[in-house]
Design goal:
By secondary structure, the protein is an all-alpha fold. It has one domain. Helices cover about 90% and strands about 0% of the residues. The chain has helices at about 1-75, 75-80, 90-130. Helix 1 runs antiparallel to helix 3 (about 90-130). The longest helix is centred in the first third of the chain and has 72 residues, at about 1-75.
């Protein structure tokens, strides 16, 4: 008689522990779903920030050499040296080098972006096939 009562109590205890574990697992799954939702939102924000940073870098690549050239042309070289000989050859050389280097840097950045986007597309196709 006592053994039967003890056995029933043990089974009741095990059932209550099992129910409590199920409740905890449900709560954990809700938290994990919320965390994954937050992580997706964070990932979107990071992608937007990366796009803005890329745009800022591209603008810097274009405008910083132009600013340097403007600074060079804005100098009063004749008044500084005092000899009255214009130094336009140095300014034109700086303009040419800056313009050509900016153009090649722009082409390199565009090529790199196309290459990485094509690579991502190929990887995406491989993932879909698998």
């Amino acid at each position: 008689m006592i053994a039967k009562t003890i056995n029933e109590e043990i089974q009741l205890f095990i059932a209550s522990v099992s129910v409590r574990d199920s409740e905890l697992m449900l709560a954990d799954s809700k938290v994990m779903r919320e965390d994954s939702k937050i992580m997706r939102e964070d990932s979107q924000i990071m992608k937007q920030q990366a796009a803005r940073t890329t745009l800022l870098t591209t603008l810097a690549v274009i405008y910083l050499p132009l600013q340097l050239i403007t600074g060079i042309f804005g100098m009063n070289i004749k008044e500084i040296t005092g000899d009255g000989i214009p130094r336009w050859s140095a300014c034109l050389a700086a303009l040419g080098v800056g313009g050509v280097s900016t153009f090649f840097i722009y082409l390199a950045v565009e090529w790199w972006q196309r290459r990485s986007s094509q690579k991502k597309m190929r990887e995406g196709e491989k993932d879909k096939e698998a």
